[in-house]
Amino acid sequence: MLLITCPWCGPRNETEYHYGGQAHVPYPETPADLTDEQWAEYVFYRDNPKGPFAERWMHSAGCRRWFNTLRDTVTYEVLAAYRLDEPRADLPQAGGNR
Length: 98
Prior knowledge:
mainly beta; four-stranded antiparallel sheet
């Protein structure tokens, strides 16, 4: 099980959270101008990397706020958690503490 640190409430078990998909996906500036194919790509297509990946989570059993995490998709380790109004977290240095 994952231990995720809510930026407001602190570390909690993953069962308290709701997964919200990939983080940092900008909403189209003029959605009415998109073709059906472009709209489908925005709605349904997301990255699927092996390694660090920025995700959105909501603390549904706590403060009910959305925040971002940087999670390793290979090890499932949560590398960082940060509020939506904060810049994307940097990757930890190789060989450093995570």
